[in-house]
Design a protein that fits this description.
The chain is built from 3 helices and 2 strands; from the N terminus they run αββαα. By secondary structure, it is an alpha+beta fold. The chain folds into 2 domains: 28 residues, no CATH class; 34 residues, no CATH class.
């Protein structure tokens, strides 16, 4: 499953085995994180979108970027999951 996730993200990042039940996915470079932001942008349906926008705002400040914040996806879950 985790190889599928990494493939969908274009091969960015790496996995770190924490213990028998936890695998952590790490994206540690600016280019990879911006790629992740572009993939996820506009797709979150939960309050996690607030945290996602905080990441965008942090990157905008740190790297003088102008990435747009993400709108909460309000589409019907049965039609767009």
């Amino acid at each position: 499953m985790y190889v599928f996730v990494q493939a969908r993200l274009g091969g960015i990042g790496r996995f770190q085995i924490v213990n028998d039940n936890v695998i952590r996915y790490i994206i540690g470079d600016k280019k990879g994180i911006i790629h992740f932001i572009n993939i996820v942008h506009g797709k979150l349906k939960t309050p996690k979108n607030i945290t996602f926008n905080q990441l965008i705002e942090f990157f905008n400040m740190k790297y003088s970027l102008s990435l747009l914040t993400s709108n909460l996806n309000k589409s019907n879950l049965l039609e767009n999951n």
